[in-house]
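input
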Amino acid sequence: MLSHENIQANRFQLASRVDFGPTDIVFNALPIFHSFGLTGGTLLPVLSGIRTFLYPSPLHYRIVPELIYASNATIMFGTDTFLSGYARFANPYDFYSLRYVFAGAEKLKDETRKLWSEKYGVRILEAYGATETSPALSANTAMHNRPGSVGRLLPGIKSRLQAVPGIDEGGKLIVSGANVMLGYLYADNPGVLVKPENGEYDTGDIVDLDPEGYVTIKGRAKRFAKIAGEMVSLTAVEAYLAELWPEFQSAVVAIPDSKKGEALVLITNNKDASRETISAFAKNQGIGELSVPRNIKKVDELPVLGTGKTDYVALAASVANA
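output
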């Protein structure tokens, strides 16, 4: 449950870091049933008196760039999946008016960042948040931007890192602040609000904070596999696979393994993917053999949620049923 106060607090937190005014035009194709599209793409600009253009589907990769051009939009919000899709089909001049492009919900690939920068002259600012925090927790800005990080925590957000066994760098991010949800409502206990303990929200993300406060996400706590007694980040594996095959989609899930505890499975739309190629690349990059997927499943397209995130639940089910 997100209260009006939660959303308003997050709106002001964002507004304190992002330079916008009445001459701006926001383009939002993100679904507003999700807090990213609701707070960032809709309520933030509307309640600030900024003209806002809403489009019903972020999946129309050929249409959205034309509408951004036609509306003279200066600010837009998106995810890596959607932004890379627009970049594949847009005319080099479609994004001429954009001042800010904020990416969230999933990790921004270096290839997407580079494509927008070199082809369209637009710098993508990566941000980070969770539905339970209304959603924004941190963001890069025009003044303070560190590619590879998700920026610095927004004002009014307190944080601490909880140690995780097997992980040496960083810890699990725990946050509190006026933007943290009222609590959860569970289907098996209708109408009863379960409040966050001590007003804190456990993000479930393993992060590292540098001395200047920039947040770097190492991966979801749930997205670590324990292989032969070592913790392996599935997010890190996907990151080096994106370097190896930037033009293809790759996702990694873990399955039970009787010998080593868990094993990695790669799902990709690269029909030429091979374990030998991956192993050679990993070795050249100094990446251990435990981070090389044991099995590869080739598909035509990876499933995506309405929010733009990879549907890992569907992927895990497809691998388990294979």
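quick obs: The radius of gyration is 20 Å.
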